[in-house]
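Our consortium's second objective concerns turning raw sequence data into structural hypotheses that experimental partners can test. To show how far this objective has progressed, the report includes one record in full. It was chosen at random from the queue rather than selected for favorable results. The single chain below, 204 residues long, was entered without modification.
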Amino acid sequence: MDARTGQDAARERRRDLARFFGTWVRNPIKMGAVAPSSAHYCATMVASATTGIDGPILELGPGLGCVTRALLDAGVDPGRITSIEYDAEFARTLKERFPAVNVIRGDGFDLDATLNDGGATKFAAILFAIPIVKFPQAERQALFSRYFERLRPGGNLTQLSYLWKPPVKAVPGLFDVSSSDIVWDNIPPARVWIYSQAGARPLH
């Protein structure tokens, strides 16, 4: 990264912090986080995801695009990525920053309605960053079980979360749970939770 690129990235990061925090002040429950995830944290998520499997990649709750950028930095073709963002302003920003990525302003909890594909699209990996801790555990497990119906064989779901235990408990016979090491340079420090198809070996 040259000096000019580094300065541009730093300015963008400061702007994103201000916008993200402003949105959090207006609706903290919807946002879940007070600041965008760190670049290291987003890179850890991408490294934990099964992007090496052929097929499209689904990003849920991309915010202002930290994980999107990490996917591209890791060499993922932007044409493979579908990013679903509920916040209209964030979605507009994503479309401007990543014109080759399929950005959809919609509900990441209802993929059939948002994608309008009758459940046909199967993904190599799902990267999840939507707050769900307000939901009962049974609802979280049911939601992730539906996501696993959307994964290709061997595909996994990765989740950004500040919780120190799995936000979604394993569903025997469907998916297991593991995690990355703690990423200390995130605000606050956090793990990537990795949900793998039952019996599959995690990437990390």
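The partners drew two points from this record. Confidence is low (pLDDT under 50) at residues 28-32. The chain has one domain: 3-197. Both points have been shared with the crystallography group to help prioritize constructs.
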